Structure formats: structure tokens, C-alpha cells
Amino acid sequence: MKILKQAKGLLYGLLIPFIVYIFFGVLRPRVFLTGGLSTLYTILVQSITTCILGWGMHFSMTVGSLDFSIAAEMIMYEIIATIFYHMGGFLPMVLGTIACSFLFGMVKAFVKELIAVKSMVLGLALTYIIASIGEVLSTNRNTVIGTDATMLAGPPFNFIILIGTGLVMWYLLSRSRFGAHARAVGGNAVLAKSAGINEHVIGFEASMVGSVFAGIAAVFTLSRGAGVTAQNGLASIGSAFSALMCVFIAMFIGKYVSATVGIYIGAVTMSIISIGLVSIGFDSELNSTVTSAFLLILMTYTILTETRLADKVRREVAAARIRKDSSN
Amino acid sequence: MKKMRKVLAGLLTGAMVLSMAAFTASAEDVELVNFKMGYFDTGSQDGTTVPLRNNLVAAIESLGAEGVSVQPAGNTPDDYLDALDTLISQGVDAIALPWVSFMFAGTPAAVKKCEDAGVYYGFYWGVDVETLGEDTLAFCQDSDHFMGCFYQQENDAAYAAMETLHNYGCDKVGYIGLAASNELQENSRDYGVLKACEDFGMEILVEQRDQNVTTTAEGGATTVENFLTAYPEMQGIVIAGNTQFVMPGIDQVITSKGLTDFKVAAIDFPDAMETYAQDGVLVYDAGAHVTGPVYLTILAANAMNGTPLITKGQSFNQQYIKLTSSEEIEQWVSIADEIVYNTDELLQCLQVVNPEFDVEAFDEMVRNYSYADIMARHHAE
Questions:
Q1: Which of B79, B181, B214, B218 to mutate to test binding with chain A, by most A CBs within 10 Å of its CB?
Q2: Of the N and C termini of chain B, which has fewer Cβ atoms inside 10 Å?
Q3: Are A220 and A175 found together in one domain?
Q4: What is the predicted ipTM?
Q5: pLDDT at A213 over 60
Q6: pLDDT higher than threshold 50 for residue A180
């Protein structure tokens, strides 16, 4: 019964990418409907980076901290990965980058909890700082890797990375004490504190998870692009915004699927939109406008639905009170 | 014949520099005026910005000046105007302005700021003086401080890129370019691409101009994947900007898919371009247009030393290095000649050192900048 309910929920969740896919399929059937599996494969591969970043952002957002610096962090780890690659090749590149993401993640999480400001401004400030570190690290360095180190971008490794990271995400979210505590802090920090949950420890761990996920995304993204260029200032925000949209889509379909699956569905939806806009020859400079508009529609719908639901509950409570008063 | 002309031009420039040196006093005898040369540094480590910065810094040091750099907060004209204020507040004597960052919207304000501050200024990566616009010319056309504009023949570079693709049999192409707002004037990369389409019967199937995508390697991979998914008939790609960012990802996708007949022609030199040439992907690249700020520094140094080469700002046609085959690309990379003009050559461009050097000689030097010129000056057997 539970499995049936989950399957039904998944089908509901898949409605968004399905509708978007069909929309573009009608406009360009040769690409989306009769073009074989290559389009689907491209969509799935292109969604991996955004999805992992979205998973990384999720816990920070759950505990009330919108951290845009995760994309700048990913780019910095990509630069670090190229350094490790030129020092020792593929294996040091992978292991060194993940280790660095762990270490730097600790420092970043510590700084965030030390400042203890749950504001977007802190995230933007961190973006500037991390982007600067990336620039310094890439100065006078070759930040292109050889084809021998790009195997992770191809099958089956790309999907192994996705599924492996997804399983970790699922465990943290659904099976770990950390996940439960994060939800508790995000739901009601005061109540969580009175239940003995240390808000700062959870915030620290949430930030750490984000950093390690950014490290994983960096290794995969570098493998896909075979090179990286430091992005100064807030130039990396675009990538963070895509990940953020995945989280919002996950929230939108949160009633039907878990956040792990929801974020992946969000990333797939974003990829479909990306390829769809190219296939219909849409002005590429307006792509961000379209995706932002899509997000706005989802957010507006979510807010309206929640408001109606809250109104309905209020009305029911009021009606129950009236019934109770009249019976007395 | 074309190559022979290039070699001859290089040899002539070399001979000119040497003959001028014969007339001159030793540079050590002359005490150069120290001045502050201001410039914008985005901090980017890409294959175009790094050689531009290195050449500029080398020129500033060679000509006895002190470099003052500022990093704009972003890429908008307003960001650059704010950064210009910072440079002026640092007491610079001359400034090299990247026109492409100010555009038509920010240029009048930039010129007015420089005029008000009384600093020497000029544009590189831009348009010719006549195209600056009435608002700008009203401020600068009779000014002693305006050193002029250095511009490339953007349309020629783009046209040659398309012609090369056509010669490789790639007539259905995808286009990766700068934001359309950068490409309004006739001397633009867009114009060259469109003209080539008309002349060779080529077709642009799709464009990608989103700066969020075209400034990362992964964005390059995503773009070419999208192109090939949506337009399987595509035979090549012309990259009219941001090549240094997207090229690793593009090469990665094309080689991994084994598309041996799919070719890329580009403007701007990326890192590791010899790899892309060896892969058989990159068949044309125009770049190394990094000398504009160096030329402005030469003009500023002459003015600061009391021997201005020009009395009124004028246009100079700055050159691209155009590499038209995989072989040429590999040869260019092998010389690894990053500093285009060495100290001796730069000092010979100062009238206090070399009284024979005049604006005609300067203009000739600017026009002769090419692969053959560099080979003749620095790598003559």
C-alpha cells in the first residue's frame, strides 16, 4: 500500500517535467518525440551538476540559510582539482578535491556559525571571498585537464555519481538523526532548542554537507568541461540560481515525493527547458528570463495553494469553535 | 603569396626598428618621466586577459611608468565608471579604457571624467574615433588628452572564421557569441558572420549568447550538446567571443562523440589551443589582440615625456593574429611568445630616446603586428 502511494506520488511529481517535455515535443517533435533516446540522455546528463548542487543547498535552506556561495565554492574546487590533476593525475584529483571540500567546508561552516547571521548578505559576501580565492589559486596555472581525467563525465560513471550521491542524500534526509534535527530546526528553532537540539551544530553540519556536495559536483563538472576559469565577483550566482530553482521545484512537489527525488526532478525539468529553448531557436539571452518566470509561476502557485489551505484550516477551526460554543 | 606578404611585413618592421635604433642615443642616457598608468583588471585568468595584462605590465615597467590597476565590481558600464573614479582618485596620469566595457552608454561619461581630471586616455577593443558617437566626440575631439581609439577589424576576423569553416565543408553551423548589445556596429563580429553566410551560402542554425552559459567550460559542453541534440545536421560551430571559457567543454564533447568532421572556428585564443588543434576540432582562431593598452602606454609615455606623438586623438587599426589551420595554431603555441614588444623595442618608441620615431612609424608598427612580425622580430634564424 505504501509502495503504491509512493509510486502514485512519484507519478504526480513527474508531471512537471512530463508537461514541459510534451510542450517542447509539440513544438519540435523531431528532437523530443521521434529523435530517439539521445535527447533524453543529454537531459539526464546535463541535470547532474545542478541536481548535486541543489542537494547541497537543500539542508542549508532547510535550516533557514540561503547560501548562494555554493556555486563559487564548486568553481574553486574545480580549480583545486586541476591543481591536483597536474600534480598527480586523476586519482589525486578526485580524492584531493573531496578532501579539500571537506576541510574548506569545515572552515566555511565555522565562519558562518561564528557570524551567525542567517542572511542572504552573508552568502553573497562569502561568494565574493571564495571567488577571490579561486582567482588567486588559478593565477598563472593551467586550469585545463587532459582527456584521461574526464572519464567521470561519461557513462556509467556519471550515473554512478548521481545515484551514489543521491543515496547519501536520501540517507541524510530520511534516515539520519541529522536530517530529522535539520527539519526540526527549520520548522521551529525555539521548539527544537527546547528539545535539546543545538541549532549551531545543525547549521554547521548543513553547511558541511553543502560543501562536500559542491566538491563532488566540482569533480563531475570539471570532467564534463575539461577545464575551468575562475569567476570573479558574483559571476557564479547563475549556477547557484539554477540549483535554487531545483529546490523550489522540489518544495512545489514536496507533497508527492521526497526532497531527494524532487530536486532531481527539478534539475531534469531545468535541463528540458534548456534544450527546449535551444531547439525552438528562442533568443538565448532571454533564457534566464524564461526560467525565472517558470520559477515565479511555481512560487505563486505554491503560495496561493498554501494560503488557501491555511484559510481552509482557519475556517474549519472557527466553525468547530462555533459548534462547540453553541453546544455548550 | 599571402604568407609571403606577412613575412615581408614582419621583416620590414624588424628592419625599421633596427634602422631607427641606429639613429638613436642609448636609452640609458635618457631619464624618463615617471608617471602612473591606470588600467582595469578583471582578475580573470583566461587565455586573453592574462597575456593582455602581462604585456601591459611589461610595457609600463619598460617605459619607466608605474601601473595602477583597479578591479571593476561587475561587467556593466556603471561598474567600469565606478572603477574609473577609483583610478582617477589614485592620481593616475593616463588610463587605458576598454571601450567594449563602456559601450556607447558609458563612453560619454568616461570621457568626461577623464577630461575633467586632466588625464590622458584612449580606448582599446573598440570602434574607430568617428564611430564613438556625437556625445563622446563633443567632449574629446579637440582634446589634448585624448590619445585615440585602437580597434580591430572584427568583421574581417569573423568573416575569415566562417570562410575557414566553409572551406572545411561546414556550412550549417551553430553560433556562440557575445551579448547582442555588443554587436551593433558594422565593424562587428555579427556583421562578418552574416556577410559570410550570404557570400558562401552558409546557415546559422542556432545561437547561444547567454553570458551565464558562455563563460564556463561546462557551459560550453552543455551548449554543444544542446546544439547537436536539437540540430543533428550541424557541421560546425563559430565562436565569436568567450572562446577562452567555452572551448575546453566544446572540445571535450566533440572528441568524446568522435565527430571528426565537425569543426570549430573561433575568435579569442583559449588556453591549450594546441590540444584542440591536435584533436582536429579547432581549425581557425583569431586572437592575441592584446596590444591596445601597450600602444596607449606608448602614446602616454611620449606625452608625459614632453614629446607627444599625436596632437589629436585618432584611430589605429589594431591587428588580430589570425591562425587559419590546425598547423598554424600548433606553430603559434610552440613559440610561446607572450611579451610581444620587449623593453628595447618599446624604448625605441619614445621620441626622447629615438627622435626619428613619429606617428607614421607608430601607425606602421600597429598595422604590422602579426604572426610573421613577431617571428621576424623575436625568432629570426
A1: B218
A2: C
A3: yes
A4: 0.85
A5: yes
A6: yes
Residues B281, B339 within the same domain: no
Q: Do A225 and B217 touch (CB under 8 A)?
A: yes
> What would the mean pLDDT of B349-357 be, rounded to a whole number?
94
B37-82 pLDDT per residue, tens: 999 998 777 778 888 999 999 999 999 999 999 998 887 889 999 9
Domain match, B148 and B9 both: yes
Structural domain range at position B86: 2-152+289-322+334-378
User: Does a structural domain hold residue A288?
Assistant: no
Of B71, B230, B245, the CB nearest to A28: B230
Summarised one tens digit per residue, pLDDT across range B308-328 is 998 888 999 988 888 888 888
Phi, psi at residue B26, to the nearest 5°?
-65, 140
> Which residues constitute the domain of residue A6?
2-282
List pLDDT tens digits, range A133-161: 998 898 777 788 988 899 999 999 999 99
Q: Tell me the mean pLDDT in the region B207-229.
A: 91
pTM of the model: 0.81
Same domain, A309 and A328: yes
Write out chain A residues lying below 8 Å of B213, CB-based.
284, 287
Same-domain check for residues A301 and A224: no
Same domain as A277, residue A316: no
Q: A224 and B218 in contact by Cβ < 8 A?
A: yes
Task: Please say whether the beta carbons of B255 and B281 come within 8 A.
Answer: yes
Instruction: Tell whether B327 is covered by a domain.
Output: no
Task: Kindly state whether residues B178 and B257 are assigned to the same domain.
Answer: yes
Closest CA to A90 of A14, A148, A13, A24: A148
Q: Can you list the pairs that B111-116 forms with residues at least 24 positions away whose Cβ atoms lie under 8 Å?
A: B111/B136, B111/B139, B111/B140, B111/B146, B112/B139, B113/B81, B113/B84, B113/B85, B113/B88, B114/B84, B114/B88, B114/B145, B115/B139, B115/B140, B115/B143, B115/B145, B115/B146
* B101-110 tens-digit pLDDT: 888 788 999 9
Asked if the C-beta of B227 comes within 8 angstroms of chain A's C-beta atoms, the answer is yes
Please, where are the H alpha helices in B63-201?
77-89, 99-117, 134-140, 154-167, 189-200
Chain A with chain B: Cβ pairs closer than 8 A: 127
Average pLDDT for chain B = 87
Same domain flag for B127 and B30: yes
**CATH code, domain carrying B118:** 3.40.50.2300
| A229 with B43: Cβ contact below 8 A | no
For A106-132, what is each residue's pLDDT tens digit?
999 999 888 877 667 888 889 999 998
pLDDT band at B329 (very low <50, low <70, confident <90, very high): confident
Residue A287 counted as domain residue: no
Which residues in chain A have their CB less than 8 angstroms from residue B74's CB?
233-234
Indicate if B212 and B267 belong to the same structural domain.
yes
A109: left (phi over 0), alpha (psi -120 to 50) or beta: alpha
How many domains does chain A divide into?
2
Kindly state whether residues B231 and B104 are assigned to the same domain. no
